[in-house]
Predict the structure.
Amino acid sequence: MAAWPVAAPSEACQYWSPAGQVNLAPLKALLPNGRRVRHGESRGQREISLQNYLWIMMGSALGGGARLWLSGFVAHYLGQTFPWGTILVNVTGSFVIGFFAALTEPDGSLLVSPTARQFVMIGLCGGYTTFSSFSLQTLYLARESDWSRAGANIFLSVFLCLLAVWLGNICAAGINQMRAT
């Protein structure tokens, strides 16, 4: 019996062994050079290994779970009439990414591997909230006294995200209305 239950045979089955262990061979075969994915040049040529992707995905899963728990906890005690849970998640995520980024910079007091930094900043904080990345990027622009770009980042992020969520809601309402008739 396969560890990952599926209704019908599919490609997903090839990633799981009957013992429930992940089989990475099919994934590695999809990647250039069989082991690494190349990214564009930025501060020199970089390569991210499959293992790094797995660490980032694990961090994202943990961050998403933490977001669900904290948002639910806050909603239970404060109600759902105002998004206090989301605000708390966004604020704490911004704090965590700012704190960890400064602590682990080349001049910071904590030396961690690039994989550990990616696990926390991309995985954990990214899964917890993308607002943390937005906040850190805005802080860096402000530190460089690039006020116009910092302001544009704030305005465009808030405006475009609100516009996108509104448009998505309208599209889904239209689909729901068509299905109801």
The CA atoms of residues 27 and 140 lie 36 Å apart. The chain has a mean pLDDT of 77. The helical segments are 25-30, 50-78, 84-103, 114-128, 131-143, 147-180.
